[in-house]
Amino acid sequence: MTTPSSVLVVGAGIAGLAAARKLAGEGYQVRVAERSEVIGGRLATRRLGTAVVDDGAQFFTVRHAELEEVAARWIARGVSREWCRGFRQPTDGHPRYVGSSGMADLAEDLATELDVVTSVRIDALSAGARGGWVARTDQGVTLDADAVLLTPPAPVTLGLLGKLASPEALGALRAISYAPTLGVLAVLDEPPAIPPPGGLQLDGDPISWIADNQAKGISPVPAVTVHIAPKASTQWWDLSADEALSAVLDAARPWIGLREPLVASLSRWTHAAPEVLHPQRYLVAVEGDQPVVCAGDAFGEPRVEGAYLSGLAAAGAVADRLGRPDSRPRPRS
Ligand SMILES: Cc1cc2nc3c(=O)[nH]c(=O)nc-3n(C[C@H](O)[C@H](O)[C@H](O)COP(=O)(O)OP(=O)(O)OC[C@H]3O[C@@H](n4cnc5c(N)ncnc54)[C@H](O)[C@@H]3O)c2cc1C
178-275 in CATH: which number? Predict the structure, then answer.
């Protein structure tokens, strides 16, 4: 009897889930470990009372055939729908898609039937005594795998790899950098003054994005998402939560009016958007027939689609190195 090679995927954002889905579909034994209580990473749909708000990614675009195929299936099954064809007049005509009840729907759908464990942070990675890899969790549990696919932000991945990776790979990971984003979610007692389709891309002084989640079709009550541009986010980063909330709400007054929100909450996205990216869709940190491969939106394109494609490409790189699931006997004790 042969046991399929096992792969540990670290991170249940869209990159990790796309990778896990592809590898599981090919017959590998795949486990996804996610440090948060919920899956999705930056596909983050939150509930504030009765309001539903997209906190991280607001929509996704499709430029490549691989995601086009999946997006068509999502739309046919009601997982996703088109929101609009642009936020400025005249529109550019390119569809902006959303998860039907929030962006996290995409992650939920990809995770169906996968072995995903949440509230499990991988804190260390080391070589196994009999080959493969041993990942240690924040609860002191160890997880074994023949191959590891890492999708956290590059600084976290660097910490996990320590000296395991080649100097070239470590250098490539160190070169990646991110811009932060401060965000505010606010539930209102009347609709904000945001024209159809309910989202505004602004010049970022300081607001870069404001959206009406009710007009978007995911919230039963008026609720806005406000994102602050990288420069102002950096300037305001060290403010207390109360100070940052009031600075963001003051900047949003032209759209939300002078009444105080019913509920407001602040988000700090430290690694919101890759600024310096790795040019390829994945990076092989440790070569060989038991590889460690890195993926995520910092590899290739800094958006939902880029993360998805990176996950797929990294899964292909893992499979190429492990060999087909049933092609070599790998008894594991
Ligand atoms: C505010 C904001 C707005 C955005 N707007 C858009 C948009 O409108 N359109 C668009 O296309 N893109 C947008 N993006 C970018 C988009 O969200 C990302 O490109 C994409 O979701 C990244 O997916 P990922 O899987 O690479 O990373 P992530 O979603 O960050 O997933 C990585 C996962 O790894 C987990 N993790 C980290 N460390 C560990 C560990 N040690 N152990 C276990 N798990 C770990 C994290 O919890 C996370 O779930 C936005 C991002 C932000 C923050």
Answer: 3.90.660.10
Q: Give residue limits of the domains in the chain.
A: 6-50+57-175+277-322, 178-275
pLDDT tens digit sequence for 265-307: 999 999 999 999 999 999 999 999 999 999 999 999 999 999 9
CA atoms within 13 A on the CB side of 168: 5
Q: 296 CB less than 6 Å from ligand 1?
A: yes
pTM of the model as a whole: 0.97
Q: What is the pLDDT of residue 2?
A: 63
Give a three-class secondary structure readout of 222-239: CEEEEEECHHHHHHHCCC
Q: Cα(70) to centroid of ligand 1, in Å?
A: 19
Ligand 1: residue whose CA is nearest its atom 1:
56
Q: For ligand 1, atom 12, which residue shows the shortest CA distance?
A: 303
Taking only the tens place, the pLDDT of each residue in 38-77 is 999 999 999 999 999 999 999 999 999 999 999 999 999 9
Residue 329: what pLDDT?
45
- Per the structure block, which two tokens stand in for 187? 């539930």
The Å distance, Cα 12 to ligand 1 centre, comes to 9
Rounded to the nearest angstrom, the distance between the alpha carbon of 206 and the centre of ligand 1 is 22
Q: Which of 102, 239, 261, 263 is nearest to 182 (CA)?
A: 239
What separation in Å is there between the alpha carbon of 205 and the centre of ligand 1?
A: 24
- Whether the bond into 206 is cis, omega within 30 of 0: yes
Yes or no: say if 41 and 118 are a contact pair by the CB < 8 Å rule: no
Buried b (16+ CB within 10 A) or exposed e, 282-310: bbbbbeeebbbbbbbbbbbbbbbbbbbbb
CATH superfamily of 6-50+57-175+277-322: FAD/NAD(P)-binding domain (3.50.50.60)
